[in-house]
Design brief:
Layout: H1 5-16, H2 30-36, H3 41-52, H4 56-73, H5 78-84, H6 90-101
Length: about 110
């Protein structure tokens, strides 16, 4: 079955916000993404899961963690990385990173 027009809009909504799999920016909230494609938040959530197989919240968190890694790899501190990616503080980033990957983000620092 060919994807519906709304599904194509959902796929394009991340591009409109400048989000990429590498986490170039903080992703939009569910409500912002839904509004961008003219859907209710509930319908957008349903279609997002149906099209990607991922919950929107997990996808957005993945983008935020990617952004934090990018900032840290570029020489920023963990605090800078946390704030730039939308985490409250470096402890919040560290807890989330450890839960997702099983290691501390500071372990990525070489040198």
């Amino acid at each position: 079955m060919a994807p519906c027009r709304r599904a194509r809009q959902i796929r394009g909504s991340s591009a409109r916000y400048g989000c990429s799999p590498t986490g170039s920016t903080i992703p939009p909230t569910l409500g912002e993404a839904a509004a961008a494609v003219g859907l209710s938040a509930g319908r957008f959530r349903h279609l997002f899961v149906a099209e990607t197989g991922l919950p929107y919240r997990g996808y957005a968190l993945w983008l935020r963690l990617g952004r934090a890694v990018d900032v840290f790899a570029a020489g920023g501190s963990l605090t800078d990385a946390a704030h730039d990616a939308g985490f409250a503080d470096s402890a919040h980033l560290s807890r989330t990173f450890r839960r997702m990957f099983g290691l501390a983000p500071s372990s990525l620092h070489i040198g």
